[in-house]
Amino acid sequence: MAYQHIDPSQLLATIGGDVASYRELVAIYLASTPALHDQLQQALAAGDCPRAARVCHSLKTSVLLVGAQEFGEVLRELERFALDGEQAVLPLACTEVARLFALVEQEVRHSIIP
Fold first, then answer.
1. Which of 10, 54, 76, 78 would bridge with 67, disulfide CB 3.0–4.6 Å?
2. What's the chain's Rg over C-alpha atoms?
3. Is residue 3 part of a domain?
């Protein structure tokens, strides 16, 4: 599979090429990020700047670990807007965050298939 939204080699390099550890970390990613995504969507829709900033930071860390640079940059910008109190901007990001989350999750799932 040609990856457009993640770079599995980034995580593999971080863990020294250990495929078993890669699969474990991907399983943790897949188990933990949907709840973070849901929390972020709620915070964005409500324009809740403090919560959005916290969740963006947590989710950003996870997506960058799997090499999702584009999504990580979007989350970095959203975190900055939230920290700056740009409440009106947050609800506008819901659709793009959902789109990128789905694309990254799909590729992460495919990355563990031998």
1. 10
2. 14
3. no
| Tokens 């793009």 -> residue | 96
Q: Are 72 and 64 in contact (CB under 8 A)?
A: yes
**28 residue type, one letter:** I
**To which residue do tokens 């916290």 refer?**
54
What's the angle, vertex CA 67, arms to CA 46 and CA 97, rounded to 5? 20
Q: Token pair for residue 107?
A: 């590729």
| Residue 58: CATH number of its domain | 1.20.120
CA dist., res. 63 & res. 80, Å (int): 17
The tens digit of pLDDT for each residue in 43-96 reads 999 999 999 999 999 999 999 999 999 999 999 999 999 999 999 999 999 999
CA gap 107, 103 in Å, rounded = 6
pLDDT tens digit sequence for 16-50: 999 999 999 999 999 999 999 999 999 999 999 99
Q: Are the beta carbons of 30 and 11 closer than 8 angstroms?
A: no
Domain membership flag for residue 2: no
